[in-house]
Amino acid sequence: MSREVVAVIGGTGQLGAAIARRLAIAGWTVRIGSRSSESAQAAAKSLPGDVTGHENLEAATGSGIVLLTVPFAAQAQTLRDILPALVGQILVDTTVPLVPPKVARVQLPPEGSAAERARHIVGERARLVSAFHNVAAHKLASDEEIACDVLVFGDEADAREKVIALVEAMGLRGLHGGALANSAAAEALTSVLIFLNKAYKIDGAGIRITGTPAADG
Ligand SMILES: NC(=O)c1ccc[n+]([C@@H]2O[C@H](COP(=O)([O-])OP(=O)(O)OC[C@H]3O[C@@H](n4cnc5c(N)ncnc54)[C@H](OP(=O)(O)O)[C@@H]3O)[C@@H](O)[C@H]2O)c1
């Protein structure tokens, strides 16, 4: 696939910066988005490769793929802020609907999932995909190989395919997880992984889908 410009909205944070770094190392052009252009520029400077910093709306404008990497509490407002830039673009929502303090307990929103909540906000403007719910940001921020598959959800198979290519550029395995409605399963699983981390003192539990090519490697 051609390497499009990717915007990472909330790319100053844990997950967004880690994704931006891996994409930049893979040779992609990355725009970090933030509520503050100064913060975005500082984050971009700390990363290798072709990475620039912008306010969120500016970062999203003209980027072929827009990743949303902000906390659940900031999801709706941030989407509204970048709405004009989303027409026809692939929007990858990474939001897990964690509601502190009980983050190790599944608490899906009334819409069914954070991804479906995003659909209510963006409507049919963007080609909505959700992914990255189960991979720990601190693992992504390192160069180590990560024992976690990335399930990719969305109602358009070709949009999912593009996001799987992005996931694979980052050195991870991406798998089609089916319709956007299925995102609820991966979002809920994150609270289970957080529980497992605590219960078994695991440094970032992940998921592996077995029975698929190279699944057990
Ligand atoms: N961390 C993980 O391991 C992980 C793994 C899988 C999925 N996720 C999901 O990825 C998303 C981001 O997680 P994270 O840990 O990277 O979050 P984070 O570091 O706490 O925040 C990411 C960015 O969101 C922006 N933000 C924070 N609070 C905001 C607010 N109230 N209003 C608007 N923007 C705000 C900030 O950017 P600016 O201040 O620069 O605007 C911040 O740098 C979450 O939905 C999380 O569930 C995280």
Rg over CA atoms: 16 Å
Major sheet attributes: 8 strands, mixed
Strand content: 15-25%
Give the strand tally: 8
Verbal overview:
With 217 residues, the chain is of the alpha/beta class. Helix content is 37%, strand content 18%. It has 8 helices and 8 strands, in the order E-H-E-H-E-H-E-H-E-H-E-H-E-H-E-H. The protein has an 8-stranded mixed β-sheet with strand order 3-2-1-4-5-6-7-8, sandwiched between helices. Helix 4 (72-82) packs parallel to helix 5 (114-122). The longest helix is centred in the C-terminal third of the chain and has 18 residues, at 183-200. It is globular, with a radius of gyration of 16 Å. It starts with 5 loop residues before the first strand and ends in a 17-residue tail after the last helix. The relative contact order is 0.14. The model has no long low-confidence stretch (mean pLDDT 96).
Summed up:
The protein is 37% helix and 18% strand.
Features of this protein?
217 residues, alpha/beta, eight-stranded mixed β-sheet, 8 helices, 37% helix, globular, binds NADP nicotinamide-adenine-dinucleotide phosphate
